[in-house]
Amino acid sequence: MATKIVYAHTTVQELWAVHEHKKGHLLGLKVDNQYSAAEKIQLLDDFTTDAGYTSGGSAYAQAVVSNLNRMQVTVPAGDCISLGEEDCKGIEFLGRALALGSAIASNCKITAQYKLV
User: Fold this and answer.
1) For position 110, which CATH number holds?
2) C-beta of residue 28 within 8 angstroms of C-beta of residue 85
3) What's the burial of 114, exposed, middle or buried (CB within 10 Å: 0-12/13-18/19+)?
4) What is the pLDDT of residues 39-98, one digit of tens each?
5) Which residue range is the domain that position 80 belongs to?
6) I need a surface site. Which of 1, 48, 50, 71 has the fewest CB within 10 A?
């Protein structure tokens, strides 16, 4: 099991990188929000397909970027939530996992535990 810590931000923060031929399973999530307002955290599954030509080379296929929202939690100001393996069961990512906050908050810590299989 690996662990990654990032801080809430309005631009995506990478929890783990994409690994070809592997899925990421979320095993635990802790959000400690000591910010002065509630923080909405989204976990996004960011996978892409390559752009290319279809058979015969005549039709061009655009690259696809997913950014699927796999989980969203709102943590009140001054509060902390912890989700264990049972809470996160079945949440898997095909690409890299990204955390997106509703505000830039260096005092809102996001800790993710995961396993690549």
Assistant:
1) 2.60.120
2) yes
3) buried
4) 999 999 987 766 555 555 565 556 556 788 999 999 999 999 999 999 999 999 988 899
5) 2-48+59-116
6) 50
